[in-house]
Amino acid sequence: MAEIKAFRGMRYNTERAGRLDELCCPPYDIISEKERKSYLAQNKYNVIRLELPKEGDNVYTTAGEVLDRWREKGILIHEDKPAIYIYEEEFNAYNTRRSIKGIIARVKVEEFSKGVILPHEFTLSKAKADRFNLMKATNCNFSQIYALYMDEEHTTLSTIDELSKRKPNAKFTDGDKVTHKLWIITDEKAIAKLCADFTDRKLYIADGHHRYETALNYRNYCRENGISKEGDAQDYQMMFLMDMEHPGLVVFPTHRLVRDLPKFDRDKLLDGCEEYFDIKAFDSVSHMNELLHSEYKKGSKSFGFYCGKGEWYLLTLKDIDVMKKELPDLSEASQQLDVSVLHTLILEKILGIDKENMAAQINLTYTKFYEEAIMGVDKGEFQCSFILNPTRVTEIRDVAAAGEKMPQKSTYFYPKMTTGMVMNDIGVE
C-alpha cells in the first residue's frame, strides 16, 4: 500500500533570507498577479519566484536559474539528516479557533488504477502542463500535495501529538491569521514507526490533483529519458498526510454563480424544479445559512437558489432515488452528492449548462465565499447563484473508493497549506 519515507528537506536560511512570514505564500493557483507582486515587494526571496515564475523569456528556465543561485548563496539549505516534518495550522472557521496537524513526507507515486492513492476530482490539462514544465526545470516540489488517510485508532495522530509537544522548529502567522508550525523529526525510530503506519493504508487526495498527476507524468518522463530508473527519487513526491477524522478538518462548499445565460427565466427554472424539489420562498438571506445547515444535519439534499435583492428559494430534493435513473452508470456515492444533484437536475436538465460548459466556465463561476455569491447577483454581474452545503469527508472517501471522481470544484479544504516552509529537492537524498 502507501509507501512513505523521510527526506532531507530544503528550507530557508532565515539568517540570510529574512523572516518566514515574508518568504512563504499560499499555493500558486489561488494567488492573483497583484498578490504575487506584493509578496515580491515584501521580500525578493519569496518562494513565489520559484512556485509562480513570471520572469525572463522562459519563465521555467528562469525559475531553475533562481533556484541554483539561492542554493549557491545559502538562501536555501538542506536538512543534515533525513526527516519527516510535522506540520500544524491553527485557523479561524465557523467562529471557532481550530487546528489541523499531520506529517510531510516523501510518498511513492502510484497510478490511480492500483488503488493505493485515489483522486476525487477532475483536473484541467493546462494547469498540469504548467506544473510539468516547472518540475522539468527545477526537479523540485515547492508545495505539498494534501492527502487524507483512514486510521480508526488514530495511532499516527497520537504519535505526532507526542512528538510535537516541544517548541516547533519554525512558526509564523500569515495575513489571514493562520498560524503555521513545523517540527523536524530526525529520530530514526520515530521515522520508522511513522513509515510503518502507512504500509496497509490508502491515501485520498484532498487537494493538489494537478500536482499529483504531474508527478506521475514527471516520473514517467524521467524514466523514458534515462534521467532516473525505478526506485529513484523521482518516484517520490512531497505530500502532507492527515487523519481523515481529524477533529479540526474543515471543508467549505463551493457555490455556483450563473452568468450570460440566454433567455434566463427564474419562473421557468422554479417550474422545472417543482417535479424534483420541495420549494420554499424567502425575502431575506439573513437565515439562509442556518436553514441550509439544518437541512445538512438532517441529510437532505438542499440548495439556496438566490435571485437578488434578498429573494431566494430553498430547494430540497424530494426523492434521492431519481438520481439512480439520471446517473445509472455511477455508484450510489456519486449519485447522492449534492453537486451531482444540482448539476444533473438543475444546471444541465433545466438551464442547459452541460459538463463541457461547466468545465470551461462559459456560463458558470465558482466561489467559496458566500458573500460573493450573494453580492455578485445583487450587483447584476450574475443572473442567479446556488448556495451549497459542504461535501462531507466520508462522501469524498466513498467516491474515490468507487474509482470515480467528483465534478470540479466540489470541495474546498481550508486552510490551504503554505508554500515554502519546507520543500522537496528531488535531487537530494
Query: How many β-strand stretches?
Result: 21
- Straight-line distance between termini: 22 Å
Helix content: 25-40%
Outline the low-pLDDT stretches.
none
- Overall spatial form: globular
Protein name: DUF1015 domain-containing protein
Pfam families: DUF1015 (PF06245)
Written description of the protein model:
With 429 residues, this protein is an alpha+beta fold. It has 2 domains: 4-250 and 414-425, no CATH class; 254-389, Conserved hypothetical protein from pyrococcus furiosus pfu- 392566-001, domain 2, CATH 3.30.1760. It is 34% helix and 24% strand. The chain is built from 17 helices and 21 strands. The strands form 5 sheets. Strands 1, 4, 5, 6, 8, 9, 10, 11 and 12 form a 9-stranded mixed sheet that branches. The protein has a 6-stranded antiparallel sheet with strand order 15-17-16-19-14-18, with helices on both faces. A two-stranded antiparallel ribbon has the order 2-3. Strand 16 (302-308) and strand 17 (311-317) form a beta hairpin. Helix 5 runs parallel beside helix 6 (125-138) and helix 6 (125-138) crosses helix 9 (209-224). The longest helix is centred in the middle third of the chain and has 16 residues, at 209-224. The protein is globular. The two termini are 22 Å apart.
What is this structure, in a nutshell?
This protein is α+β, with helices and mostly antiparallel strands and about 425 residues long. About 35% of the residues lie in helices and about 25% in strands.
